[in-house]
Amino acid sequence: MMAETLVMKAPAKINLSLDMTGKRPDGYHTLRSVFQTVGIYDTLTITKTEPDRPLTLTCNDPAVPCDARNLVWKAAVKLLGEHPRGIAMHLEKEIPSQAGLGGGSSDCAAALKGIRQLCGLPVTDAALHAAAAGLGADVPFFLTGGTVLCEGIGELLTPLAPIPKHILVIAKGREGVSTPEGYRRLDALTEQPAPATDNVLAALSGDAETLFAACGNAFDAVTDLPEVQSIRQIMRAYGVNPVLSGSGAAVFGGCRDRAQAEQLADALKQAGLPFVRLCTAV
Known about the structure:
Blueprint: E1 5-23, E2 29-48, E3 56-59, H1 71-80, E4 87-92, H2 103-119, H3 125-135, H4 139-142, E5 147-152, E6 156-159, E7 167-172, H5 179-188, H6 197-203, H7 208-214, E8 216-217, H8 226-237, E9 243-244, E10 251-255, H9 258-270, E11 275-280
């Protein structure tokens, strides 16, 4: 008997590197970036309902839209048609928004995989990947996760050997970052920040200190929110290299051991930051 409910875990991601490589005539920026899923999760529960009952979406976070604006809803439309029926979905958010951690894209990928499985849809992996690419640049990555080199506008994915389960501290303040504004600021720079991807690729299998010292993100050069600056200062005081994830405003730091990570996390919490988590690569 086919399951009536499916619970999907949607992981966050960090960018171990993020380099801008150019800008296409259509306005899209091209990049090279090493993506890495980490152990912070949203949870998407998908339940079968009466076949003619319209889709419903609920969420524990009142700031998250539960209608056609949500990528989870858009995933259902992709697979079930313009007026999806027969399923109800509930999203428990743990990944903060406007953080550069990919929560919305990860939720979308979880919905694509979950709806296909729960409803027994005859959708191939290639077709699912194409649907994901049509919903957002980061969504295809989350279909598999892990350690991946992303190029182009994010659609060219090269799986890499998994990195060791080094311990990370991720922090975010109350403010978010506008991705379009971040790109505008990068475009205005007379000289682009030094690329980090090749150094990260060379250090992936090494020890924590070598790998995380190599990490870098072009958006770090143009992101100066006071809370981000505070996170950076605290991480550096504990001997940790602070790196923005995506266009921000979350900052991660890789630690040499759990003791260092716990001390850093305590200091960030004492500074009043609302989101501080310890996690590992997954």
